Amino acid sequence: MAWKGDHEPMFRYIASCMSDVSSVRDFAQGEAFVKGFMQAQFGANLTYFTSETEKEVGHGYTDISLTPRLGAQHRYVVELKYVNRDATEEKIDRVLEEARPQLAKYISDHKVKEECDKNDWYLHGIVMVFKGWEMVRYEEE
Description:
By secondary structure, this protein is α+β, with helices and mostly antiparallel strands. It is built from four helices and seven strands. It starts with 7 loop residues before the first helix and ends with a strand.
């Protein structure tokens, strides 16, 4: 993920860990719980990124921003969405459609692009949609 940009296995692994160690009550806060869990994993387990939530970029706030450290070459901006366990496929599709322009706005921000150009980083925009504790959509912009 840090060196080759192969990010999907790591995000899927973290999502599977979340479902393994969480209870239904944990998801009462929905997206906030998912974001907190992801942030805890990146903060505790990865030394190659500085992990921030609610970083202000592109006139909005990213859910998770992973900035490379220690010579890593890949920068990540993550937009998380959450739907209840009883959400329909149509609802999931609508939420995904809402997430795409948000993410596009963040990764096209001139400060983010300048930072990536200056440091020779590859920029990855990721959208993840969770239905309860299950990640049901994963896209790279």
